[in-house]
Specification:
The complex is a heterodimer of chains A (about 450) and B (about 375). Chain A has about 450 residues and is an alpha+beta fold. Chain A has 15 helices and 14 strands. Helix content of chain A is about 30%, strand content about 15%. In chain A, strand 9, helix 8 and strand 10 form a beta-alpha-beta unit. Chain B contains eleven helices and twelve strands. In chain B, about 25% of the residues lie in helices and about 20% in strands. Classes of the chains: A alpha+beta (about 450), B alpha+beta (about 375).
Chain lengths: ~450, ~375
């Protein structure tokens, strides 16, 4: 018998998509039965109370969670988000219901052994409810009490060789796409750099020293499966600067209908026979492709590497061999001053361990500037907007490049530096007046 | 419920403490065929919705079965995932950036048996535990935020509207019949932890009433200057209020200047915005993050407000369905929703999607606003 009636939530148990309500109920039942005799360290009926408080929100159309207090583990300023219920008498099991962010492995591959260890720990010392995964990428432990925080951290670090992720004004847990692990489009090893920089910058990730949050995301190619260009203060997008290798036999196989276009992505509808002119050549944003003597030709110098032709014909066209990444800076969601897309700061850089060039010429100078000049809760993109792109060039030392803009400015209001103007700004008014009467 | 120590000593927190070790290294978790062929994959093909094969230069193949999942997941559910991965995948699995679960095997037969097994598993209420799909020119899982299950600032729930929407879009999750892939995302307030601002269709929670002011507690609970500084439109100023004959420090809000962002509430718990009638959903459309063909785009607001209709948000899901159907019918092959809207013109978009155009949809927020007004005589009747 359920502890709380949940008539509204119950209506979310039907329908084909997996029901989180059914899942919560199965966990509530599992805890109530406790066939494994687990020594629960937080209330056994925590999930029943979670269902109860959620039902109340469905009834009221308002949340029943309060702001987090200052909770965490000793020495860290991130990784734990305090959470309290505003109806603790009705739902004592979730009166304290803190979140812990557990740093996910790059690429989100797991063994069942590791996942079971995580489950055992979280069933015992927490609610048994997780997010696989949170928006930024961490494994999220949803709901435990204050005294359990250190205990969980201890078990994570001592028994699972596993650390917490970032929250607050820290480096947030970096994340990446599947990359070279299982994708032929990946232009660099996203997992290697994601893990490498996460380990390198553990101090920045755990101890708040920044004006606000800071995110790295690593996309292996311009398809941007991890949305770095929209979401990361520094987005690393794989690219190449030589030719797209072409397998002309495979091109003919596509034309002849032997291989389905776009790897079979359009198989659910009859779009007619594959038409290379219409589907590939005419869709090329730079018009740099054509057929000649039954061969597909690409003027690679004019290609902007949008990936369309490679996506459509992955068995005929491949990413180039001189690979690296493009770096964009300053993407963020709308709070406060509107959403910003990342702006291109490095057209091309090699991605090679130990990533010294990336760290020393991009990440660290940008952090130094932002930590010096950024206001409280100001993201990098907002600082770039406030102080201008010129300042970003100044602090990084990169040379201005037309690749950094979509078009040159339409107003002539240039903030000339004094040292750029012959003779400087200091002049003698009396000398001027000798030739120009008042 | 006796307290069981992990070994941590409260009196000596630094004793044997381990810190800053980071996440587990990714390659510990690679299935053997991934470890062997990493960086040497030749091509891939989607054999049917939800089933992919990747072929390596070595000739090795890996078959992936992709199953949708709620990102809100219990350990019991994760253990079931583990049981499946042990049975078919040598104890390996992964999650995608959109909260799908990927089971990988090295034979097609095993993949098909796995698919059958996944689709046979249902919750007692009738929903699939592991629906297979989410590939190609269809709709994959909705990425989303916490909502009413765990957050203090939401203007709508997350898991509820996501379940309701995916139920309505389920056929598209299982198929490859759209012009291109279509990404739906949900963020329960405009902090946008879910970064919905570049999605084909975005479901966004939004408040519409200025903050309540809990004058009696405001100065005790909040740093007033921080609350004032938090307001992006400078709508908040300091004030003195009389309570039981006592003057207390508080704030005043210029209501017509409030954009309902909730940033003040983040800084000051005595300024709550949540309201049953005030809160609801904004629908945005036409964004994308990929650089394919056209540049990445922001999503645009196409419906200013739909009330929260728990538990199934029928107006929200019906509006989304209408947009998906109009797009599906009208767009060219490979054309993303935003590219389609730009090609036919937004005036036509509203017509084809049968959406009302109201003044709320015309930008009046700062610099870029006027650049979105039509500055040409080119338009369609």
């Amino acid at each position: 018998m359920a502890k709380h009636e949940t008539p509204l939530l119950d209506q979310l148990e039907s329908g084909p998509w997996p029901s989180f309500v059914s899942d919560l109920k199965q966990e509530a039942e599992f805890r109530a039965k406790n066939e494994e005799n687990i020594e629960y360290q937080i209330p056994q009926d925590v999930v029943e109370d979670l269902l109860g408080v959620l039902e109340l929100s469905f009834k009221h159309g308002r949340t029943h969670w309060k702001h987090g207090g200052i909770v965490g583990v000793f020495g860290y300023g991130g990784g734990v988000i305090g959470r309290y219920c505003d109806q603790p008498e009705k739902f004592p099991g979730v009166a304290h219901f803190h979140t812990m962010r557990v740093s996910q492995p790059a690429g989100k591959f797991y063994t069942t052994k590791y996942l079971r260890e995580i489950c055992d720990l979280w069933a015992r010392r927490g609610s048994g409810i997780t997010n696989m995964h949170g928006s930024t990428g961490d494994i999220i432990f949803l709901g435990t009490t204050t005294p359990q925080l250190e205990e969980i951290f201890w078990e994570l670090t001592h028994n699972l060789n596993q650390d917490l992720g970032g929250s607050g004004s820290n480096l947030r847990t970096p994340s990446d796409c599947i990359g070279q692990a299982r994708c032929e489009f990946a232009c660099y090893d996203t997992q290697a750099i994601c893990h490498g920089l996460t380990v390198e910058y553990q101090d920045e990730l755990h101890r708040p020293a920044f004006p606000y949050k800071f995110k790295f995301k690593f996309d292996g190619c311009p398809n941007c499966c991890v949305a770095s260009i929209a979401r990361a203060d520094l987005s690393f997008i794989g690219t190449w600067r030589d030719e797209i290798p072409i397998d002309q036999e495979a091109v003919q196989a596509y034309i002849g209908g032997e291989i389905p276009p776009n790897a079979g992505a359009h198989s659910g509808r009859d779009w007619g026979p594959f038409d290379i002119q219409k589907e590939v050549i005419d869709n090329c944003p730079t018009d740099c492709m054509w057929m000649e003597d039954n061969k597909l030709m690409i003027d690679n110098k004019e290609c902007n590497r949008c990936m369309h032709c490679i996506n459509v014909m992955p068995r005929a066209l491949r990413i180039g061999n001189d690979r690296g990444c493009t770096i964009l800076a300053g993407a963020k969601a709308p709070i406060l001053d509107g959403a910003q897309m990342g702006s291109l700061i490095v057209p091309f850089i090699k991605v090679e361990e130990p990533y010294d060039e990336i760290k020393e010429t991009v990440i660290e100078p940008i952090w130094d500037w932002w930590m010096e000049e950024g206001k409280n809760r100001e993201r990098l993109g907002e600082l770039m907007k406030r102080q201008g792109f010129k300042k970003l060039l100044e602090v990084t030392g990169f040379k201005p490049d037309p690749r950094m803009v979509s078009e040159p400015r339409t107003n002539p209001y240039i903030f000339w530096n004094e040292d750029e103007v012959e003779g400087g700004f200091k002049r003698d008014i009396n000398e001027f007046r000798k030739h120009h009467q008042r | 419920m006796a307290f069981v120590s992990s070994g941590y000593n409260l009196d000596k927190p630094m004793e044997n403490r381990i810190t800053d070790i980071g996440p587990r290294k990714y390659d510990e978790f690679y299935p053997p065929v991934i470890a062997k062929n990493k960086g040497k994959w030749k091509y891939h093909e989607i054999l049917e919705p939800g089933v992919l094969v990747h072929v390596a230069e070595s000739g090795d193949e890996i078959f992936t079965v992709r199953a949708g999942g709620c990102r809100l997941m219990s350990v019991t559910h994760i253990r079931e995932i583990c049981e499946i991965a042990d049975k078919y995948c040598g104890g390996h699995l992964r999650f995608t950036t959109r909260n799908n679960i990927e089971f990988m095997t090295d034979s097609k037969d095993a993949a098909m048996a796995l698919k059958k097994d996944l689709e046979s598993r249902k919750f007692p209420g009738g929903s699939y535990k592991f629906p297979v799909g989410g590939t190609g020119a269809g709709i994959t899982n909705i990425v989303h935020t916490q909502g009413w299950i765990h957050c203090h600032t939401p203007a709508t729930d997350a898991s509820g509207p996501v379940k309701a929407t995916m139920d309505v879009l389920f056929d598209e999750f299982k198929d490859h019949r759209l012009p291109a892939h279509l990404r739906v995302s949900l963020a329960c307030c405009l902090n946008m932890c879910g970064a919905v601002h570049c999605s084909d269709i975005a479901i966004l929670g939004y408040h519409r009433k200025p903050p309540l002011l809990d004058h009696e507690y405001l100065d005790k609970m909040c740093e007033i200057p921080l609350a004032i500084a938090a307001c992006p439109t400078a709508a908040i100023k300091p004030s003195k209020v009389e309570i039981d004959g006592q003057k207390v420090n508080s704030v005043a809000v210029k209501e017509e200047r409030c954009m309902f962002c909730g940033n003040c509430y983040t800084m000051c718990p005595s300024m709550p915005l949540a309201d049953t009638e005030g809160d609801g959903i904004v629908i945005m459309a036409g964004g994308k993050v990929s650089n394919r063909i056209s540049e990445p785009k922001f999503s645009k607001v196409v419906v200013a407000f739909i009330p929260n209709e728990a538990p199934r948000w029928p107006q929200t899901t019906a509006t989304i369905k209408k947009m998906v159907d109009a797009y599906s019918k009208d767009a060219n092959k490979y054309e993303r929703l935003g590219e389609w809207a730009e090609r036919i013109g937004w005036e036509r978009f509203f017509e084809k999607c049968e959406l009302e155009f109201t003044h709320h949809l015309i930008d009046d927020f700062r610099d870029p606003a006027y650049l979105t007004w039509r500055q040409t005589s080119q338009f369609k009747f």
